[in-house]
Amino acid sequence: MDVDGEELTAQETALYDRQIRVWGADAQRRLSKAHVLVYGMKGTVAEFCKNIVLAGVGSLTLIDDRVATAEAFSSNFLIPPYENVYSGKTLAQLCCDSLKDFNPMVRVSVEKGHLSTFDVEFFAKFDVVVVSCCSLSAKKLVNEKCRTLSKRVAFYTVDCRDSCGEIFVDLQHYKYSKKKLDETVECNLQYPTFVEAISVPWRALQLRMSKLYFAMRVIEKYEEAEGRRVGEVSIADLPGVLKLKRELCTTQSLSESHVPDTLLERLVTNTTEFPPVCAIIGGILGQEVIKAISGKGDPIKNFFFFDALDGKGIIEDISDSNGGR
Questions:
Q1: How far apart are CA 30 and CA 28, in angstroms?
Q2: Terminus-to-terminus CA distance in the chain, angstroms?
Q3: Which residues form the THIF-type NAD/FAD binding fold domain (predicted)?
């Protein structure tokens, strides 16, 4: 990510001294000039925002017009657990107020509106766009708008349900460097869009593919088909979800065993986030965004899955040229 600008100030150098020792002054300079947009303030995204604000990102813009409720602070630590404080305020406003206290050198602001209402030029103001709590069609739309721009905008989706989580990454054509023995190696990666990745036929994917990938696609398609908001499914929807799974597996020529009923049942039984998993997924996402901005270190390509049941974090490379790994 080419971020030009002046050198770090003396105040920034003093505040971020430990980080500069880890990833260097150039990486910190790029981070301090980067602009990040986040849509959907749930627990996982709150953890991510906290991480990049503490790391010293240049600016962070939040979008979430939903009015805060008592349920919201069960997984979002940025929301004060007092009704007289959160009553009537949006999630974005409350999170913005809390994040400003973490690092006064980072500009944190709020935008109002839905993803579908913002034009392409709106996204041109940012270097990184992270979306959560949005529909399948909204993910496709924002990714397409980011791709339309002449500048490269890193695009991420993140979703956490119960004790499972998923991150998708699109860095377009990405160049970065990494250390190999005593030399620095320049690397190039070509990323598919979200649509291209999820359009790869299931039968073309490797047999050991993460089962969570298939389960998330089933839930995603069910919510879209039924006109539900993200996270609105419940145990009452399980028969419909299982029916859709069977239909998709038949269409995709995939054995139904690759999408366990028990996993789908977990995802619809408890759609709220599990705070410890929020911390893990939010930490991974923060790490990946810092990599993308600094241009240092191997980034995820292009899906990351985590399931607390087995404690495994799995990276899957899903594209037309690669059936997953």
A1: 5
A2: 26
A3: 16-312
- Residue from 93, 90, 68 nearest 81 by CA: 68
Strands (E), the chain: 35-39, 59-63, 107-110, 128-131, 154-161, 164-170, 173-180, 183-190, 303-307, 312-316, 318-319, 322-323
Q: Which residue has the higher pLDDT, 232 or 195?
A: 195
Q: Would you say 160 and 278 are in contact if contact means Cβ atoms under 8 Å apart? A: yes
C-alpha 132/C-alpha 300 separation (Å) is 18
**281 contacts 47 by C-beta, under 8 angstroms:** yes
Residue 323 has pLDDT above 60, yes or no: no
Residue 2 confidence (pLDDT) above 50: no
State both tokens at 1.
Answer: 């990510």
CA 14 to chain centre: 30
Q: Tokens 């649509």 identify what position?
A: 195
Between CA 175 and CA 173 the distance in angstroms is 7
pLDDT digit string, tens, across residues 294-314: 988 899 999 999 999 999 999
CATH class of 10-196+273-315: alpha beta
Report which DSSP code applies to 202: G
Give residue-wise pLDDT tens across range 113-124: 988 889 999 999
The predicted pLDDT at position 237 comes to: 96
Comparing 63-67, 176-180, 312-316, which segment has the lowest mean pLDDT?
Answer: 176-180
User: Radius of gyration over alpha carbons of the chain, in Å?
Assistant: 20
**What are the boundaries of each domain within the chain?**
10-196+273-315, 199-269
